[in-house]
């Protein structure tokens, strides 16, 4: 009885630790994304102003246009990379906690094997019980 309580308590502490580390990392990534989005917005605003002024003066500068567009594109790539990193942190958290999303019917049909309807874990084709949670599998 005490051993079971201790194990439950230990799992709870481990879960809190993993989730708090993930939350801190995701918050840091979100802050970076917000900073990049502000830079992107400022560059787009700057580009619009510069293009309008060049148009008014009748001197469109293609090099300047491409330079600023290149900077904006670089920021978009950095934002995409941070979003991928955030998804990676979330996936690592799920892996560490042993939680997996429930598989969709399309995913179950596309991949060989079976997915548990209770926990979403992948099992070998023909398995009768889930290797992860022990739930009875339906063929």
Could you explain how this protein is built, in words?
This protein has 2 domains: 98 residues, Helix Hairpins (Orthogonal Bundle); 40 residues, no CATH class. The two termini are 37 Å apart. The protein is an all-alpha fold and 139 residues long. It has a two-stranded antiparallel ribbon with strand order 1-2. The radius of gyration is 25 Å and the shape is elongated. The protein has 3 helices and 2 strands, in the order αααββ. Helix 1 runs antiparallel to helix 2.
Number of helices: 3
Mean pLDDT: 83
Outline the low-pLDDT stretches.
Answer: 102-111
Through-space gap between termini: 37 Å
- As for the number of domains, it is 2
CATH class of the largest domain: Mainly Alpha
Q: How many DSSP-defined strands?
A: 2
CATH architectural category of the largest domain:
Orthogonal Bundle
Structural class: mainly alpha
Order of helices and strands: HHHEE
Helix content: over 70%
Largest sheet: 2 strands, antiparallel
Radius of gyration: 25 Å
Short description:
With 139 residues, the chain is mostly helical.
Write the layout of secondary structure elements.
Layout: H1 2-57, H2 62-97, H3 105-110, E1 114-115, E2 122-123
Antiparallel strand pairs: 1-2
Helix pairs in contact: 1-2
Question: Keyphrases for this structure?
Answer:
elongated; two-stranded antiparallel ribbon; Helix Hairpins; single chain; 71% helix; mainly alpha; 2 strands; 139 residues
């Amino acid at each position: 009885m005490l051993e079971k309580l201790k194990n439950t308590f230990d799992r709870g502490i481990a879960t809190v630790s993993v989730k708090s580390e993930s939350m801190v990392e995701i918050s840091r990534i979100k802050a970076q994304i917000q900073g990049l989005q502000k830079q992107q917005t400022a560059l787009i605003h700057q580009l619009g102003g510069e293009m309008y002024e060049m148009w008014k003066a009748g001197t469109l500068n293609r090099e300047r246009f491409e330079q600023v567009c290149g900077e904006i594109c670089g920021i978009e790539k950095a934002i995409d990379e941070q979003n991928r990193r955030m998804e990676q942190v979330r996936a690592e958290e799920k892996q560490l906690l042993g939680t997996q999303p429930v598989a969709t019917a399309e995913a179950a049909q596309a991949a060989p094997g079976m997915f548990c309807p209770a926990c979403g874990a992948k099992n070998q084709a023909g398995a009768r019980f889930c290797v992860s949670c022990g739930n009875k599998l339906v063929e």
